[in-house]
Every structure is written in structure tokens, then in C-alpha cells.
Amino acid sequence: MKQIKVGIMPLKEFQAYTRAIAAGKRKRKRGEPKIWFNSMTSLAQVLSDQNRELLTLIAEQKPESISELARLSHRSQSNLTRTLKTMERYGLVRMKTGARGRKQPSVPYTDILVDMSIRDNAQTAGHPDPSIP
Q1: Which distant-in-sequence residues (6+ apart) come within 8 Å of 12 by Cβ?
Q2: Is the pLDDT of residue 62 over 70?
Q3: Domains and CATH numbers, the chain
Q4: pLDDT for the residue numbered 120
Q5: Counting C-beta atoms within 10 Å of the first and last residue's C-beta, which end of the chain has fewer, N or C?
């Protein structure tokens, strides 16, 4: 069972967080999310019920191409391509070039853990940098 932890952090805080890491002023702590969304809305869009079903379908059926996945999922190939690109950008899907140059999706995780606070600010125990205002 391979898990990935996702978190929610407003864009300005995320930018400060990544700048601090790039400048060597902070290190990513063990157990921090590896994938960040800037809002609950964006997380809900990417991990909608339909998209989680798609992740399950990819993990179980291991389609050889996006065309095959379109047939299996009963979704249009253009819609599916956009969805997969978004999921790939977040690291939830991996795309590799398979047989005859076809793009083959795979899911690298069996579980997605969501790390979030009910508070809307950085002063929470699970936040990577509680000192960010």
C-alpha cells in the first residue's frame, strides 16, 4: 500500500513556503504533504467522485492507452486528456509512452491522505510552517 499525503495551503503561503525551501531557510518536514492544493475547492475538483473512480479504474484495469481508458470509463477522449494532464501536474497520475507511442496512464498510489485544518490560516499543527501569518 503506497500512500501520498495532500494538503491545502493558500497560494501566497505556498509561494513563501517554496521560496524558503529554495533559499535553504527551511526543510520539508517528515510527514508533510507532498502535493498541495490552494483551496478545498481545487482539491474537490481534482479529486471529485468521478475522478477518484477514474483513478481506481486506471489502477485496476491498467489501460494501455488513453483511447482504451476512454472506452473503459465511457468518457470522451478530449475530456479525459485534460483531466489526466491536471492529475499528472499534481502527481496523482503518471503518463508514460507505451507501445506505438501511445500515452499510458498509471496511478502510483493506492491511498490519498488529506491533511487539512478546520482553521483557515497557517497557525495549525499540521501546517508546514506555523510562523507564516
Answers
A1: none
A2: yes
A3: 3-115 (1.10.10.10)
A4: 55
A5: N
